[in-house]
Please model this.
Amino acid sequence: MQIAFLGSSASWYLRDLARAAGRQHTIVPVEFDSIASHIEHEHNVVRATQANGDTLALSDFDAVLVRTMPPGSLEQVVFRMDALAAVEASGVRVVNPPKAIEAAVDKYLTTARLAGIGLPVPRTIACQQADAAMEAFATLGGDVVVKPIFGGEGRGITRLSDEALALRAFRMLEQLGAVIYVQEFVDHDGSDLRVLWVGDRWVAIRRRNALDWRTNVACGAQAEPCEPTAEVLDLARRATAAVGAQIAGVDLLARPDGSWTILEVNAVPGWQATSRATGVDVAALVIEYLEM
Model:
């Protein structure tokens, strides 16, 4: 198979996938910002330019694996998703599909979809004005987590429990033209679960952070293997399906009463910590899934 790797040529994940693919498949790195679409008559050919100047048509690949969603303007992000949709329409398998990436990259849309099918999520209020955000702050108990709509690995996430600091933060976000996405702070024991789905197979870890309320490995959490309950697996499976993903990382948090809440569904999930903690060759699982 010829597999286009949409991500940085310096990525650890590119090297890991190339190792897992061995000589059976070829993994070719493609940078998102090199994508261009050539439309003529009834044809729409999506191309990418490599560092050496070679131009590749993504429709010539057997599969396209999306391994990043770099920052960009609204126009750039929309164009990238439209281009991926055109590649998918040409008959090339795109993993994850652009519609799944669009849903999962948007925290508001993800939360709304999960809640819409009855899955447990933190109480959430999204608004655009500081005054409305202050009302949300009070409604959610005066202890909230503010997150950027787009982003991952705990970046840009802030916990606010001081009214004056909250007002200052909300006013700044309003001035920046941001959506103010506010969730209740869910009390927890300093750990969460990450269930990584690859097709119908899963690998799970527990992440613990004794120094920070954020449980992301990027924020210092330590990962250990975990055997999730049937309930947790069902929640993670349904959350993955809700955004239409085929490969996804689902983060779940246990409340003090033992019930679970779903924090996030990541359609471009990392697996470095998961492989290290569990000994499972996740890259091999991804390659096997692309072979199906």
Remarks:
- The mean pLDDT is 92.
